[in-house]
């Protein structure tokens, strides 16, 4: 095979790292792949690191030693996050999204990869320093959002079921009060799905009163898990009713929903960017 020029090799290295985020890759892998010395690969990686920092697409983390290597940590720049959330808030505020009964239509956006990926990066940036070990969500439209967050963090995802499933084996079940319907419902999780005493990050798409989030916290207690954070895409602030949980991070706020006028107002969290920069604390 014809030997690559340095510019071509750097592009190939960048593509390999970005295609395998959060995975530690030894320098010997690149040296053998491109038929060059590890010292040359180290110089290439320094250049790639600088390029990623300048473009705001993430960073490279280097671990020295025999078992060391390099891994790509995907991130999103503050400017890009601000622009994206402002644009998303405007899209969600369109009057066509208001449904009968006072609901907000978000399904199309929650299944759009172009929307999901930046949201996953924002949640990952907010909670990475808390070192979660697993991302947990409930069996709703929040599953895609939790999945991209787990991918950005390099973590597994666990889905809580709304009811018992025979195929899940022995499960732990609890009752909870749904914040939207005020009805008592059941959530369950297979005993095999989550090891005890894990550090858990909860991700969901919408929070009204916080009943579902409180139910998840109570279920995690049954697994002796530590809920290190709760992230939701949209939180309603239409009523003055206090939430049933605290210490959560909501990216967007629903501040008005007028069925008569067909008007809704959704805005980014006022303190959001301080939280994204690592100042978020429960």
TrEMBL record:
<dbReference type="Pfam" id="PF09182">
    <property type="entry name" value="PuR_N"/>
</dbReference>
<dbReference type="InterPro" id="IPR036390">
    <property type="entry name" value="WH_DNA-bd_sf"/>
</dbReference>
<dbReference type="GO" id="GO:0003677">
    <property type="term" value="F:DNA binding"/>
</dbReference>
<keyword id="KW-0238">DNA-binding</keyword>
<dbReference type="InterPro" id="IPR015265">
    <property type="entry name" value="PuR_N"/>
</dbReference>
<comment type="subunit">
    <text>Homodimer.</text>
</comment>
<dbReference type="GO" id="GO:0045982">
    <property type="term" value="P:negative regulation of purine nucleobase metabolic process"/>
</dbReference>
<protein>
    <submittedName>
        <fullName>Pur operon repressor</fullName>
    </submittedName>
</protein>
<keyword id="KW-0804">Transcription</keyword>
<dbReference type="GO" id="GO:0045892">
    <property type="term" value="P:negative regulation of DNA-templated transcription"/>
</dbReference>
<dbReference type="Pfam" id="PF00156">
    <property type="entry name" value="Pribosyltran"/>
</dbReference>
<feature type="domain" description="Phosphoribosyltransferase">
    <location>
        <begin position="113"/>
        <end position="239"/>
    </location>
</feature>
<dbReference type="InterPro" id="IPR010078">
    <property type="entry name" value="PurR_Bsub"/>
</dbReference>
<feature type="domain" description="Bacterial purine repressor N-terminal">
    <location>
        <begin position="5"/>
        <end position="74"/>
    </location>
</feature>
<dbReference type="InterPro" id="IPR000836">
    <property type="entry name" value="PRTase_dom"/>
</dbReference>
<dbReference type="InterPro" id="IPR050118">
    <property type="entry name" value="Pur/Pyrimidine_PRTase"/>
</dbReference>
<keyword id="KW-0805">Transcription regulation</keyword>
<dbReference type="InterPro" id="IPR029057">
    <property type="entry name" value="PRTase-like"/>
</dbReference>
<comment type="similarity">
    <text>Belongs to the purine/pyrimidine phosphoribosyltransferase family. PurR subfamily.</text>
</comment>
<dbReference type="InterPro" id="IPR036388">
    <property type="entry name" value="WH-like_DNA-bd_sf"/>
</dbReference>
């Amino acid at each position: 095979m014809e030997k690559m020029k340095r510019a071509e090799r750097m592009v190939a290295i960048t593509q390999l790292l970005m295609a395998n985020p959060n995975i530690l890759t030894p320098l010997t892998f690149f040296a053998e792949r491109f038929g060059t010395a590890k010292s040359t690969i180290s110089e290439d990686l320094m250049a790639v690191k600088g390029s990623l920092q300048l473009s705001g697409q993430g960073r490279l983390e280097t671990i020295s030693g025999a078992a060391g290597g390099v891994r790509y940590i995907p991130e999103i720049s503050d400017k890009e996050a601000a622009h994206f959330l402002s644009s998303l808030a405007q899209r969600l505020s369109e009057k066509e999204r208001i449904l009968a009964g006072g609901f907000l239509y978000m399904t199309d956006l929650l299944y759009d990869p172009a929307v999901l990926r930046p949201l996953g990066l924002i949640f990952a940036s907010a909670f990475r320093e808390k070192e979660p070990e697993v991302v947990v969500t409930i069996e709703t439209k929040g599953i895609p959002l939790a999945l991209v967050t787990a991918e950005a963090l390099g973590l597994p995802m666990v889905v809580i079921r709304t009811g018992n499933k025979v195929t899940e084996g022995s499960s732990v079940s609890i009752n909870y009060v749904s914040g939207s319907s005020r009805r008592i419902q059941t959530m369950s999780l297979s005993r095999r799905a989550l090891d005890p005493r894990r550090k858990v990050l909860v991700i969901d798409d919408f929070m009204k009163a916080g009943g579902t989030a409180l139910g998840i916290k109570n279920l995690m207690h049954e697994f002796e898990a530590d809920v290190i954070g709760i992230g939701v895409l949209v939180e309603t602030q239409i009523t003055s009713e206090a939430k049933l949980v605290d210490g959560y991070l909501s990216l967007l706020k629903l501040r008005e929903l007028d069925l008569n006028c067909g008007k809704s107002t959704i805005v980014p969290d006022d303190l959001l960017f301080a939280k994204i920069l690592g100042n978020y604390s429960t």
